[in-house]
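dude i think i finally got it to work??
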Amino acid sequence: MSSERAPPLVQRLTLSAWFAVGLSVALVVVSLVLGFYADAASRAQAIRQGSVQAEILASSLAAPLAFDDHGAVEDYLNALRANPAIEAAAAYGQSGRLTVGFRRAGGAPPSTIQLGPPRLLDGELILTAPVIQGSTRLGSVYLRIATDPLPRRLARYVGVASIILMASLLVAAMGSANARLMEAHRKLQAEILERERAEAALRQAQKMEAMGQLTGGVAHDFNNLLMVASSGLELMERTTDPVRRDRLKAGIRHAIDRGAKLTQQLLTFARKTPMKTEVIDLRAVLEGMQSVLDRSLREDIGVEIIAEGEIWPVELDPAQFEVAVLNIAINARDAMPNGGTITIRLANEAERVRVAISDSGVGISPDALTRVFEPFFTTKAVGEGTGLGLSQVYGFVRASGGEVLLDSALGVGTTVTMLLPRASRAAPLHRAAPSAAATPGAKLDVLLVEDDDHVAEVVAEMLQHLGHEPRRVGNAAEALTTLGAGVKIDLVLTDMVMPGPLSGLDLAKRVMAERPHTPVILMTGYSASAAEAAGEGLRLLVKPYRIEALAAELDGALQARSQP
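look at this
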């Protein structure tokens, strides 16, 4: 009987063995499939987490990049060092160039960035994200996160496949972990959304407060200037006394000059004024300002310039630097009612030049210390200051790539420190003095490109007074048509901001390419392209300007054309 039952038993055992083998093979296949699936899901999850981290970093850097606060940007990036998986991180400005970055391992962050989707490169996850505030892109961020290399992943899943009986438990554990991870991801997204809402509300409140303060200050000062100008013109019409008319004209001219200075200070604070940079010796510039400082200060206030060793040259706008020093000195004068000494110390410091201007005055209260660089904020009495002096200093130094520090104590005094980047080349032996304005001797046929009828009429009168013949058109397209028609044109004088697809800068580039021997002078009251024009060496007149400045630019353009 046992012999009769043996074959079915063997068959059952054989079937069971084959079933076990088949089950084992199936489990191995399922384990490998699940392993590769889990690997792909893990990579996708890593990309999602990295993308969220990059978006959080981009949102956090919006305010620091908007104010060029490199210290705050560096603090945010250094906070990422706590995550050992992050091998490199960097922030980039609007131009796409590296601002601040670090690396833990591997290569350094690229010097420039191009936004793109997340990608894996040599076992590392590369992520980029734009830094956007409203509709303005302020810069970009870059993250490089370490991931497991392919050989290690294969070894891990082959080991998982060999433990056949644990495969199902492993899958279940992975499913549970993935569920927890997704829940954590959901909570993180909810926290991010709430944080973005809170930051947006805070930014809006700050913008409204700053806008209210700015517009109120501008309206107050310009209404005063307009009052002087309009009343002065009305009084000039009512008098025939030449002495009184001259006095009224001087008052109107002073009001216009103050309005132009106020506009330049606003543009400097906004970092929108064109910077005419050159390599200069700060010590020589300050020593050359001695007479200007003496005239601006009282007799009981002295100025002492101390240079610690040979001072490195710097590259900046010397006129803006002189205005910044003068603004600080005037504040120091007002803070020393009983007289004293203003000390200007120069020293080299870590590839920067430190310019520290100190007084022994009354000092600044702690509650005002954090607001002194705000436009129109002043501790002086009404009518004694515009509140734009230190904001001009702040805007100029930041536009020059430097940093401003402020140290003050009540009853002790105040020190304003400008840290200016060292120039990569040496300063010239002698600073070129500005040439005196001179009327060109030859009569010029000038193509005047200006869309504003009133401005065009005044500029045309200036040109005629200087002995030239203006030909006015309203935009760049009409100017190109006139030039293409073969009309005799000796010089092009064009506004920068005009209606139509072509700006004054575009017109200047076209004229330079098609008629290289025809000089071009640009005019602007405000233009975001003014800095670019100055950087390309184009001649630039900043509105409002006097007839002497126009004559000097015409003379300079003709002299440049006559040179080989």
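The first helix runs from residue 2 to 60.
im so relieved honestly
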